[in-house]
Design brief:
By secondary structure, the protein is of the alpha+beta class. It folds into five domains: 38-266, Rhopdopsin 7-helix transmembrane proteins; 274-382, Beta-Lactamase; 399-495, PAS domain (Beta-Lactamase, 2-Layer Sandwich); 500-577; 585-737, Heat Shock Protein 90, CATH 3.30.565.10. Helices cover 54% and strands 17% of the residues. It is built from 23 helices and 19 strands. Helix 7 (210-228) packs antiparallel against helix 8 (235-273). The longest helix has 50 residues, at 497-546. The chain is elongated, with a radius of gyration of 52 Å. It starts with 7 loop residues before the first helix and ends with a helix. Residues 733-739 have low confidence and may be disordered.
């Protein structure tokens, strides 16, 4: 109900319509005794008024019928189909009026004319009411052919029933008596239905309903006039026909504006409001419309361009060199979008600018082409933007840091060359895809999604990519527009894997240096007392043997064993502190590895471990210390053997030439090493063995590094480990010169 109580000014048009209709209605009451149709001309006047109403009704139907495929307005179609129905019924009423020629070979009569009349009015009132409540039908596409068939069937049924079976209907007119109570009651029913429709339309509060409401107001006075008239010749009967013509004219105007004029004006408004320069051409190639943006763009106003054929227009706007490139003529017949690339438009003031033109076909119902719509683009800004983008992309791709950017929907919009190199992904694999599809929550770079969601920005934040064995330093930040709104986010990352490894090596070297200094200072001081202890223990052991002190002799043996163990530890300390040897000899790895193979195999047989050797006999020699290399290989081989003592397995010793290095690998099928423990293997005193010192691998690494090589470790828990020693090849002198 609140929609009914709106500002008074919104009701002023309706109040004016009501006041005008009511004033004429009241005036007719006073002039009724003085205004009477002349009987001789009444039939001609009645027929003219009725046929005019029929013509307007059929015109309303035609507009709604032909506009529906484009407008899809169910209200207008229902109204148009209804106008066809009661327009035909009104025609039947006119042709059966007293004095008219017989319709369908049956004589005309007041009874038939009155029946046609009241059925027409009821059909009219029901159509108006259905139109008012058809808001719920908007999502439904009405089959207009089926609706037309229903209208024709209804009109035909009414015609046949009234013509051949009038006794089935209640009488509306009795000769010598006049209108029946039924007819008058039905007239009031029609008025009531129109009032309900009027109420619904006012409540709906749609601007398009104003003419509809005005028409209903006038139709109510029309029905009142036809209810109150006493004689067909009095003023109310004449006024009722005039009201009805006005009613139908208002309905026709409403349908025409809604379906034809309104969309046309709306399209013109849209085209005029477009910031892009626009021209429309008829199917004959003449300019129909140009907006203000085109006038500013070309310097020619709409009056100068309207009606020009596109060939004449091209002569004004383009140089002779561009004329052969124009495709507007093709667009008029191709029914396809065509584009004119890189033309040069000549402004009215003589300036020239690079442009592009897109021609869109204007198709009626998707079939017939009525013309084209041409949109003009100034390429100056695009060229500047393209140049800026090229420079920006060059700078971004030249960065040594990886860069990845996303927009508000987390769609990846930037991915530079460094990002490709670090992450091993191509730009075409990730651009325009959602960030979360490429980098799931467990990914190291998912931190960018957290920045976008929470606004937390990270600086120098370390992350690791375990599967790629990478360590990254990342920085994230939000991307904002000029007014501070977040429009995306970006992440910059650097590969610091090599730096972290170098730092680890430096840390290990510092430890080794410290251990070496300690060993150099204390080893001799400790070694002398140990020699004394060992000597006296051996004497005690001999005395115990002479005196048959077996328990004491066992204790002496334990002391000697522990003294030997301490001596071995001291030798390791001294080896860490020892400076690299300057004099190295050529070492034949096949021969050295054969010795290693036999020594390890002899031990492996006792523990159900199979040892396999895959060493080429033609490997070039390496420069090194044979004893130190033997120590390294034995250490790595026995480490692999010890990892398989419980379950058994296979130890594979291999050696292959890889570039300028020989790769000696010890691969076991033991328990494997957790990935988080691998970086700790070469740290002094780190061990997983019960009786280990944690110095074997650090010493091995030191020896290999002194030989110009390195040790690589690959391991997987439950499958085994591979320790690979890379040693540089020693070429003969002549071969070194060639290399």
């Amino acid at each position: 109900m609140k929609n009914l109580f709106r500002p008074l000014k919104e009701y002023l048009p309706l109040i004016k319509t009501f006041a005008s209709a009511a004033a004429v209605f009241l005036l007719a009451k006073f002039v009724a005794p003085y205004f009477i149709f002349p009987g001789s001309s009444y039939l001609e006047i009645h027929t003219t008024l009725e046929l005019f109403s029929v013509f307007v009704a059929l015109a309303t139907f035609a507009v709604s019928w032909f506009s529906y495929p484009e407008s899809k307005d169910n209200n207008v179609l229902i109204l148009g189909i209804g106008f066809l129905s009661f327009g035909l019924i009104d025609y039947f009423h006119t042709m059966t009026y007293k004095g008219m020629p017989s319709l369908l070979l049956l004589p005309s009569s007041p009874e038939k004319a009155t029946l046609f009349w009241i059925i027409g009015r009821l059909t009219e009132a029901c159509t108006f009411l259905l139109t008012a409540i058809s808001e719920k039908l908007k999502p439904i596409k009405i089959n207009r052919v089926l609706a037309l068939a229903c209208s024709v069937v209804w009109s035909t049924a009414v015609l046949l029933t009234v013509s051949y079976y009038p006794h089935l209907l209640p009488p509306m007119y009795i000769s010598g008596v006049g209108l029946t109570a039924t007819k008058i009651t039905l007239e009031y029913v029609v008025i009531a239905l129109n009032l309900i429709t009027l109420f619904l339309l006012i409540r709906r509060q749609t601007s398009n309903d104003l003419l509809f409401v005005k028409a209903l107001l006038v139709s109510i006075f029309s029905e009142l006039s036809f209810t109150l008239y006493i004689s067909v010749y009095d003023s109310y009967n004449f006024l009722g026909h005039i009201y009805r013509i006005i009613t139908y004219s208002l309905f026709f105007q409403s349908v025409f504006i809604t379906s034809v004029k309104g969309p046309y004006l709306e399209m013109q408004y849209i085209l005029k409001s477009l910031p892009l320069p626009v021209l429309t051409f008829s199917r004959t190639g003449h300019v129909q419309f140009s907006n203000q943006a085109f006038s500013d763009f070309s310097g020619y106003n709409a009056r100068e361009l309207e009606g020009l054929h596109f060939t004449a227009l091209a002569g004004k706007l383009f140089s002779k060199e561009d004329l052969p490139l124009l495709r507007a003529g093709n667009a008029l017949s191709s029914k396809k979008i065509t584009v004119d690339h890189r033309l040069h438009l000549q402004h009215k003031n003589g300036e020239t600018k690079p442009i592009m033109v897109e021609h869109y076909p204007l198709l009626r119902s998707g079939k017939r082409q009525d013309g084209i719509l041409s949109i003009f683009y100034d390429l100056q800004d695009k060229i500047k933007l393209h140049t800026f983008q090229q420079r920006f992309n060059f700078i971004v791709d030249a960065m040594q840091s990886g860069l990845l950017a996303v927009d508000n929907s987390l769609t990846i919009t930037a991915f530079n060359k460094a990002a490709e190199r670090i992450l091993g992904l191509k730009a075409e694999q990730v651009l325009e895809r959602n960030f979360k599809d490429i980098f799931p929550p467990q990914s190291a770079l998912y931190i960018l999604a957290d920045t976008f969601a929470t606004g937390t920005e990270y600086k120098n934040y370390p992350v690791g990519i375990a599967e790629a064995n990478l360590e990254l330093d990342v920085e994230t930040s939000l991307v904002k527009d000029d007014i501070g709104n977040t429009i995306g986010a970006m992440i910059i990352f650097n590969d610091v894997t090599a730096l972290r490894r170098l730092q680890g090596k430096m840390h290990r070297l510092e430890k080794l240096k410290l251990i070496g200094e300690m060993a150099a200072c204390t080893a001799h001081e400790i070694k002398n007392p140990l020699t004394t202890i060992k000597g006296f223990t051996q004497v005690l052991q001999k005395k115990c043997d002479e005196l048959a002190l077996h328990a004491e002799k066992e204790f002496a043996s334990i002391i000697l064993s522990e003294v030997d163990r301490l001596n071995k530890l001291l030798q390791d300390y001294l080896l860490l502190a020892k400076q690299p040897q300057e004099e190295l000899s050529e070492v034949s790895l096949p021969e050295l590895l054969e010795v290693i193979y036999k020594m390890i195999k002899a031990e492996a047989v006792q523990h159900n471990v199979k040892v396999i050797k895959k060493v080429s006999d033609v490997l070039p020699p390496v420069s090194g210390n044979p004893e130190q290399l033997k120590q390294v290989f034995l250490n790595l081989g026995f480490n692999g053997l010890q990892s398989m003592l419980k379950e058994g397995g296979t130890l594979t010793i291999s050696a292959n030439l890889t570039g300028d290095f020989i790769e000696i690998a010890f691969h076991d099928t033991g328990c494997g090493i957790p990935c988080q423990n691998i970086p700790k293997l070469f740290e002094p005193f780190y061990t997983t063995k019960e009786n280990g010192t944690g110095l074997g691998l650090p010493i091995s690494l030191k020896i290999v590094q002194e030989h110009g090589g390195e040790i690589k470790v690959e391991s997987e828990v439950g499958k085994g480990s591979s320790f690979k020693v890379l040693l540089p090849v020693t070429y003969p002198k002549a071969e070194r010169l060639v290399n």
